[in-house]
Write a structure and sequence with these properties.
With about 100 residues, the protein is α+β, with helices and mostly antiparallel strands. It has one domain. Helix content is about 25%, strand content about 40%. The chain has a five-stranded antiparallel sheet with strand order 1-2-3-4-5. A hairpin with a 2-residue loop joins strand 1 and strand 2. The two termini are about 25 Å apart.
Length: about 100
């Protein structure tokens, strides 16, 4: 049960990231300041936020960060998705080592 909830939560976060990859940089900028999304996954409360970080080269680092409360223990499961959106509309993956900044 626990692993199914975590798997489902990660799929939700990844789906948010896939949707954001299709947006232009201008559309992403319009999302700045959006409130954190509250969701429920198999009766567990969770939050999903979007972090937008303009880069010196004109690209935008986009991170989808989710936290789902543990059911019986203290703590939370973390789900992350991230990428770079470039001014020409292309997308490149965020290196794995950068995800450690968002845990």
């Amino acid at each position: 049960m626990f692993l199914r909830a975590v798997k489902e939560f990660r799929a939700i976060v990844n789906a948010r990231g896939e949707r954001l990859r299709r947006l232009s940089i201008d559309e992403l900028v319009d999302l700045s300041g959006m409130p954190i999304e509250n969701v429920t996954v198999q009766s567990r409360s969770a939050t999903i936020g979007i972090i937008l970080e303009p880069q010196p080269n004109g690209s935008m680092r986009v991170v989808v960060q989710g936290f789902m409360n543990a059911r019986f223990l203290l703590g939370a499961s973390v789900a992350l998705d991230g990428f770079y959106k470039h001014p020409d509309g292309t997308v490149s993956p965020m290196p794995d080592r950068e995800f450690y900044w968002y845990d």
